[in-house]
Design brief:
Structural class: mainly alpha
Mean pLDDT: 88
Oligomer: single chain
Number of helices: 16
Number of strands: 6
Low-confidence stretches: none
Helix content: 40-55%
Shape: elongated
Order of helices and strands: EEEHHHHHHHHHHEEEHHHHHH
Length: 356
């Protein structure tokens, strides 16, 4: 027997949700829901749908098109024709291991999505990332495969999670290293290099991150073949951006200091900095912990580099040509002007990292 439930939508309008529940042969109940603007329309649909499901073989056919969420995730991954980013792939794998992944599409309600987000022992912005990637699947499941995943349930869950603080946006950082902090970091790496000459050149990597404004993973991907020395620019492969990362290759200008650091690197292999992102991250984290700068991250070096460009009077288009930002809106979070002029003009470590 169908049930009609009065629902208040997020926009304040009233909807009538028809719910059908059918139990047969001791199997897990089959559920279907659909929301209408008028109560009579909801009753008419429910009556017609119940009649259709009573036909021989109808329920079995519907169940065949009502897979578990984990199966839908697998199908999405198989049929996704773009190169999938590492973070997205990791999130989807994690979702497959959650209890909700064993539920069939027609059984999942907005409360299930909310519970999934609440179960994640991560920051609100990371929960929002999980919801966003799952939402991409929910949005195409019905129109592409006719799977009964209710997109409205996901939209409702987004509203609940946002208003209850379960999900949230990343907080903009304004942390920049001081010259005193950078002096201690460079001295620390210099002392270690003297004791262990074979260790990775962290002094060069730190300085390059500042002057080039490149992200940690981008630094590790740069190849000698990507360098246009005459044009003082570098091809940054798979540059991060909100819409797409894989295949987003962008030419970025190199300030003189960054180009000089590259020219000082030995040509061993095809990459300019032949090290893993994880190794650089671990190295920097250990150093900042040892020096008691626990709140300083490697990405703060990019923040410093972009802000420096504005402090020395570089125009917005010129700064964007270096950093690779596509818009002022995405760029301004990195610009916290503290002075005019170049505080690195007489930086003693520049000669060390360029070999000049």
């Amino acid at each position: 027997m169908a049930t009609i439930i009065l629902r208040k939508r997020a926009d304040g309008t009233i909807g009538y949700q028809a719910q059908i529940l059918i139990s047969r042969d001791g199997k897990k109940p089959h559920r279907e829901t659909k929301t209408f603007d008028r109560e009579q329309a909801a009753k008419t649909w429910a009556k017609r749908r119940e009649k259709a499901l009573k036909l021989p073989g109808a329920l079995e056919q519907v169940r065949a098109k009502d897979p578990k969420l984990a199966e839908v995730v697998d199908q999405y991954i198989r049929e996704y024709e773009r190169a999938m980013g590492r973070t997205k792939a990791q999130v989807l794998r994690a979702i497959k291991s959650m209890p909700m992944a064993e539920m069939r599409c027609s059984e999942i309600r907005s409360a299930d999505y909310v519970s999934m987000a609440q179960s994640l022992d991560v920051k609100p912005q990371t929960r929002a990332n999980y919801m966003s990637h799952l939402g991409s699947i929910v949005a195409i499941a019905r129109p592409m495969w006719s799977y009964p995943l209710d997109q409205q349930a996901m939209k409702d869950a987004f509203v609940v999670c946002n208003r209850m603080g379960i999900t949230g946006k990343s907080k903009a950082r304004d942390r920049r290293p001081t010259l005193a902090e950078l002096d201690k970091i460079m001295q620390h790496y210099g002392d270690r290099k003297a004791r262990r000459p074979a260790m990775m050149p962290m002094q060069k990597i730190v300085a390059f991150a500042i002057f080039s404004t490149r992200r940690q993973e981008e630094i590790c991907r740069i190849k000698w073949a990507d360098l246009d020395e005459a044009g003082a620019r570098i091809l940054v492969r798979d540059m991060k951006n909100p819409g797409e990362k894989i295949g987003n290759n962008v030419w970025c200008d190199l300030p003189p200091e960054a180009l000089a650091i590259i020219k000082s690197m030995p040509k061993v292999g095809d990459r300019i900095f032949p090290y893993s992102s994880g190794a650089i991250s671990a190295n920097f984290t250990r150093a900042t912990a040892f020096l008691d700068f626990p709140d300083l991250t490697f990405h703060d070096l990019r923040h410093e580099g972009v802000s420096r460009l504005f402090e020395v009077g570089v125009s917005i288009p010129r700064a964007a040509a270096v950093s690779g930002h596509r818009s002022w809106q995405s760029m301004k979070r990195y610009t916290h002007i503290r002075q005019t002029g170049d505080k690195f003009e007489d930086w003693k470590w520049l000669a060390t990292v360029t070999g000049s």
